[in-house]
Amino acid sequence: QVQLVESGGGLVQAGGSLRLSCAATGRTFNSYAMGWFRQAPGKEREFVAAIRWIPGTSYYADSVKGRFTISRVNAKNTVYLQMNSLKPEDTAVYYCAARNRGGTYYYSRPSEYDYWGQGTQVTVSS
């Protein structure tokens, strides 16, 4: 019923920028919160950023704070991740996630999210 469609990944050199997009569709979907996670080869999935739909409060991992910005377009159920000053350490598959429930939650935990995209590869060359 609910699908998350990601786009915007690609190849970029260190110091460059990319913008990832994620659109949520589905007849029963409610955008309580959406987030971005990433997973590098041989590593666990790690939290990158999240946004609570209302009032738009955002959260960031320390590793990306000041470089990445998460935003949303309410009417389109779409979330973006603007990535600036990219580093080789940012290389990973980036996953969009959506929480379809209200209440408080641990925004950095993958288990708190209900739906996931298929991922988009981001590769940063040195």
Tell me what you see in this structure.
By secondary structure, the chain is mainly beta. 0% of the residues lie in helices and 49% in strands. Strands 2, 4, 5, 6, 9, 10 and 11 form a seven-stranded mixed β-sheet that branches. A four-stranded antiparallel β-sheet has the order 1-3-8-7, with no helix packed on it. The radius of gyration is 14 Å and the shape is globular. The model has no long low-confidence stretch (mean pLDDT 93).
Helix content: under 10%
Strand count, sense and barrel status of the largest sheet are: 7 strands, mixed
Order of helices and strands: EEEEEEEEEEE
Span between N and C termini?
A: 40 Å
Shape: globular
Oligomer: single chain
Percent of residues in β-strands? over 45%
- Counting helices, strands and paired strands, the structural category is mainly beta
Number of distinct helices:
0
* Rg for CA atoms: 14 Å
Low-confidence regions: none
> Would you count the extended β strands for me?
11
Q: Roughly what is the average pLDDT, rounded to an integer?
A: 93
